[in-house]
Specification:
With 515 residues, the chain is of the alpha/beta class. The protein has 12 helices and 22 strands. The protein has 3 domains: 253 residues, 3-Layer(aba) Sandwich (Beta-lactamase), CATH 3.40.710; 105 residues, D-tyrosyl-trna(Tyr) Deacylase, Chain: A (3-Layer(bba) Sandwich); 91 residues, no CATH class. The chain is globular. The protein starts with 9 loop residues before the first helix and ends with a helix.
């Protein structure tokens, strides 16, 4: 969960542990590193007492924890024996460690082979004459937020194989049964990629990147390129909004050496396209800045991308005949293209390593889907999670869940509960899947730059979680003598320095690895 990266907001960025938006992860990272194992000598009472004393000394002298609420719970994976506990049954804001819950529950209910599905179809109400669809080809999403342009590039050939040679545009099922944002999400996060709308039809993680460079001199408009594609429009200059939404550039070039004030705002007018506006200034001669922003309404963006794929392939795209996309699919649809996502066993790497909020919410909706449906309301997914937690022996009535990602400020869970979830994964059939998909200290994901030069490097497989004034980490530490240690280390009401807390965690985790 990562904020804007403008100079004006560096403090917020530091507080939220900046990283890049989710993309498909490099699954070769850490492949040769030994995973934690269950085998090992049993912890003795004296060893546990020594470990506890060492951790207590570190916590007592940590200025970064001044005034903070700290919770730690650690057990031996071999027999579940408690190795260390501090406020283990207190409720904490989990931030992105809550993704351990939705990912583990999804493995249990949906299975490691589960895939999201996206379809294109010719509506039953549209006639086809000599290969020409007298209407739009429709897209129907099933929650695949990592659907990309490479997948949509398959659409022209699929249409030709189905005997279709021309269409009147591409539209989409405008499914608005479920709100695009969850309770407790901050409205001023909405322009940014980590709080993009959650919609059944998605594309490219519902994100585009603005590469902003200064103009020729003070007062000149900045230059903006859009990735992976698209056009940004200088206000008052003619421009075609080809993304399915408009990016208005009002930002200008500042005086040389001045601070960057680049920011993005959202305007959702009544009717017409949603608009994103780039404001502020970037100093003359400054390096480029790269802003990862949320797409305002992803289904429209996906339809624009599909139209682009057809046009680039030389397909005949005729003027759109429809006034507005339908709210529901008509009967007798003719499916002409189907795309399946990667399996859940791989998607968990995309979820946990970069900490993808929107993918977490799609999995929550998949958990809440009624029989025969692809998605259900988030509330139904949370209800299923609570039933699953009871199976693990957790009192679900003491857990506060409002989303799947942990972005909500209302979420609460205990360190004990996080460890219970991790222990369930450890004891089950999906242990290796979980270990392969978690961030690994000094190697991959949100822990790639963490704990380097300590005993924890390459020995801690764990999920991070960071919000303003809350920081959490939960996972597995590989202890060569005793086997795996399962732990959660949560901090609330925290106003310290991120680097100091990271250094403290590295020292605590080194004891879990070496003692």
């Amino acid at each position: 969960m990562n904020p804007r990266i403008t100079v004006a907001l560096l403090a917020a960025c530091a507080a939220l542990a900046c990283a890049s938006p989710a993309r498909a992860v490099d699954r070769s990272l850490g492949a040769g590193i030994a995973k934690p194992v269950a085998a090992g000598a049993q912890w003795t009472d004296a060893e546990i007492a020594s470990l506890s004393a060492n951790v207590d000394v570190l916590l007592a002298g940590a200025k970064t924890l001044g005034g903070a609420h700290v919770g730690i719970y650690a057990i031996g994976a071999r027999d579940g024996r408690v190795l260390y506990a501090r406020n283990a049954d207190d409720l904490f804001q989990p931030a992105s460690t809550l993704k351990l819950l939705v990912g583990s529950a999804a493995l249990d209910k949906l299975g490691p082979g589960f895939r999201f599905t996206t379809e294109a179809f010719v509506p039953g109400s549209a006639s086809v004459v000599d290969g020409e669809v007298k209407g739009s080809v429709m897209l129907r999403g099933g929650g695949d937020v990592l659907l990309d342009d490479a997948a949509l590039a398959e659409l022209p050939a699929a249409l030709r194989a189905a005997g279709v040679v021309a269409v009147h545009g591409v539209s989409f099922i405008d499914d608005r049964r479920f709100p695009p944002y969850l309770p407790g999400w901050s409205w001023d996060d909405f322009p940014w990629y980590y709080a993009a709308p959650v919609t059944p039809l998605s594309l490219n993680d519902n994100t585009v990147t603005l590469d902003v460079t200064p103009g020729a001199g003070p007062g000149a408009p900045v230059s903006v390129a859009v990735r992976p594609w698209g056009t940004a429009c200088i206000v008052a200059a003619p421009c075609r909004a080809d993304l399915g939404f408009a990016i208005d550039v009002r930002a200008t070039t500042g005086e040389k050496g001045s601070a960057s004030t680049l920011d993005v705002t959202r305007d959702v007018p009544s009717g017409g396209l949603d608009r994103v506006t780039l404001i502020g200034s970037l100093a003359a001669g400054a390096d480029a800045e790269h802003l990862d922003i949320a797409v305002p309404w992803p289904p429209r963006y996906a339809a624009a991308a599909a139209t682009r794929a057809l046009t680039r392939a030389g397909f005949r795209v005729l003027p759109d005949l429809s006034a507005a996309p339908p709210a529901a699919a008509p009967g007798n649809d003719r499916i002409v293209w189907t795309h399946n996502s990667a399996p859940l066993s791989d998607l968990l790497g995309d979820l946990w390593q970069p900490s993808d909020n929107i993918l977490a919410e799609q999995l929550l909706r998949a958990l809440g889907a009624p029989d025969g449906a692809r998605q259900g309301p988030s509330a139904a997914g949370i209800a299923w999670e609570k039933t699953w937690l009871k199976k693990l022996g957790i009192d679900a009535e003491t857990v506060a869940l409002e989303d799947g990602s942990g972005l909500s400020v209302y979420d609460r869970i205990t360190p004990h509960d996080l460890v219970t979830i991790l222990k369930y994964d450890w004891d089950g059939a999906n242990r290796d899947v979980v270990l392969d998909d978690l961030p690994l200290a000094g190697v991959r994901g949100t822990l790639k730059a963490s704990f380097t030069g300590t005993a924890a490097e390459q020995h801690v497989f764990a999920k991070t979680g960071t919000l303003a004034h809350a920081s959490a980490l939960a996972g597995y530490a590989a202890n060569a003598k005793h086997g795996a240690v399962i732990f959660a280390f949560t901090v609330d009401d925290w106003i310290g320095e991120a680097a100091a807390l990271r250094e403290l965690r590295g020292r605590v985790l080194s004891h879990f690895v070496e003692d």
